[in-house]
Amino acid sequence: MARVRAPELPPDSLWLNGTTSLAEHPLSLKSLRGRVVILDFWTFCCINCLHILPVLKQLEQKYKDSLTVIGVHSAKFDNERDVAAIRQAILRYDIKHPVLVDNGLEVWQHYAVKAYPTLVVIDPQGYVVQSVVGEGDRHALDRLIAALIEAHQQQGTLRFEELDWFLEQQKSPILTPLAFPGKVLADQSSDSLFIADTGHHRIIVTSLNGSEIKHIIGNGHPGLTDGTFTSAQFASPQGMVFDRQQHWLYVADTENHALRRVDLRQRQVETIAGTGQQSRQLQPHQGIGLETPLNSPWDLDRVEHYLLIAMAGSHQIWQLNLIEGTIRTYAGTGAEFCVDGAIDQAAFAQPSGLSTDGTTLFVADSESSTIRAVRLGRSPQVETICGSGDLYGFGDVDGQGSDVRLQHCLGVAYAGQHQLWIADTYNHKIKQVDVPTGTCTTILGNGTPALQDGKGIQAQFSEPSGLSRAGSYLYVADTNNHAIRRIEIETQTVTTLNFPGLCAPHICL
Asked: How many distinct structural domains can be found in the chain?
């Protein structure tokens, strides 16, 4: 079979995380001859693309003198074409290889890519060896790279050299007290604000006005370690639920594929579900919590003694029995679609936000840009409240039911009186939905990403991802602004909270 030469990368491409000499000499496949190259076609909304990143990081470290990974960012959503947003994603996910901005999908088309993620392996002589669609098999990819290195070393066509990239984190380091906070939880009775300081791999507990720092949970280094607040480790934690009676905080420890319980009285963290390994199981499953692998749990809520879990990685809702310690798939087939019906037939698309009124579980179904409802009870059903119900049916349109267009919504918060708040993340807005009618209305934000306090649409956000209501206030995890915003609901006035004495872990040291 004739070998296929890898199409050259466009010379006028925009690069992020490039070398110090890129301004004069754009990166090309020709310049990388003698090395194994992997092109990673990705987009930063996609959970499967995010799952690939740790694999690539391991391979880059193992073969740092003979392997080059190039991310080809091929946007799905409009917001993902914003170069500033791509740069933020590179910082958020600690990407340390060059990223080509392929907004026109030119490279995508040259390589006949059809799905996210796709890895294209190119040998040291510049020929395509293999294309891997989906998350694939890390061990098989490792074996392929090792075999290519060995073969080309014997042929004398391998060039050993450790390349040095000038990273975005070197140009624009994150020095703020919070880094990419993903979720926030407000509890009025205890005057507590729980913040998933996702980018710093820790949980912050403050007073509702931010003036008092009550707890810093986690040492700020990514890992899966139980223990005291100062020794425990998380990896990009997201959603939380607070048990007021026991003073326990439950945490979706997303990149650890685990659920953690924080004992605020004893100042201890323990793992209650997950093995630390990502599950590859998409079929309905149940088992003992600590023996069952999970798949990117993103948000949590609680009904009675059940913890409900937005399992973003498997496109399902799961349920943990807090008394028995057992966990099971609750709703969703595992297929990435937007399908209503009985919970064993319904389908979700990367569910990322949960909120409940006790009888209905509301779901921010991010990849379908749709708000869903799971009617709890003896015969639970999944319904669509608003949004297109289509993986590519996104936009920014207020209206009713299926006429509504959202863009990768990540957060929901039930407000009572049949009203639901939405973090319309990629539209940089906060919206409200009347649940019975499905009528969706923009309340705050003008759609331009920025950090601006004010009233109503005069205020500005940047990829808000988490919401929580306490009394007359709505709290927002304003992710790309590295901030927590507080909204006085009656006047629709937005202010940015300050946290005196709080600093980033590496600065505090």
From this structure: 2
Whether residues 26 and 107 share a domain: the answer is yes
Q: Give the phi and the psi of residue 225 in degrees, each rounded to 5.
A: -135, 125
Strands of 140-201 (E only): list them: 184-187, 192-197
Could you give the angle at the alpha carbon of 221 between the alpha carbons of 234 and 145, nearest 5°?
90
The whole domain housing 257 covers 239-508
- Residue at 104 is within a domain: yes
**Domain co-membership, 141 together with 264:** no
Q: How far apart are CA 449 and CA 435, in angstroms?
A: 27
Instruction: Dump pLDDT digits (tens) for 89-128.
Output: 999 999 999 999 999 999 999 999 999 999 999 999 999 9
Q: What's the predicted TM-score (pTM) here? A: 0.96
Residue 285 lies in a domain: yes
Q: Residues 318, 343: contact at Cβ < 8 Å?
A: no
**The token pair that represents 346 in the structure block:** 């319904």
Other Cβ atoms less than 10 A from the Cβ of 315: the count is 25
Residue type, 248: W
Q: Is residue 325 part of a domain?
A: yes
- In degrees to the nearest 10, what's the CA dihedral of 31, 35, 36, 40? -40
